[in-house]
Amino acid sequence: MKYWRVFFAFVLALAVLFHPLSAEAANKRVAGKRAVVNKDFSNKTLIASEFTKLNLENSNFSNSDLRGAVFNGSTLAGANLHGADLSDGIAYLVDFKGADLSDANLTEAMMLYSTFDDVDITGADFTNAVLDGFQIKKLCAVASGVNSKTGVSTRKSLECD
């Protein structure tokens, strides 16, 4: 992992922690230790929404606009994020086990301490995303396809080669 990515992740984390939320984002905050399993968020505009400590297992975020959204300490196991735009978002301490991230746009996303076991990342774009090194290796082992919106190959976006 390049050092500038770690620095970028640190600065981004500080900005999120100490920056006041806009009125729009404050209205989209969902937090708590509750389950929101099987919820349908598909095709929604959820820009800068916050999902903190939620069980979003098997929820559907397909084709949703999640730019700048924050998933913190949440479970997205089995979730459908096919075609979702999570660019500039944060997924910190998120369990993506079995999730569908195919054709998702994850550019510039900070995804430290998240796990990606048995995920479908066909065509996902991770350009300049910040991930743990061992997770990148795991994702490179299954990376394939080209993102339909950005035109970037998954392998290239993860810098596998």
UniProtKB/TrEMBL annotation:
Keyword Signal tagged: yes
Residues making up the signal peptide according to the UniProt record: 1-25
UniProt keyword annotations, A-Z: Signal
Superkingdom assignment: Bacteria
Name the UniProt record assigns to this protein: Pentapeptide repeat-containing protein
PANTHER family for this protein: THYLAKOID LUMENAL 15 KDA PROTEIN 1, CHLOROPLASTIC
InterPro entries: 5peptide_repeat, At2g44920-like
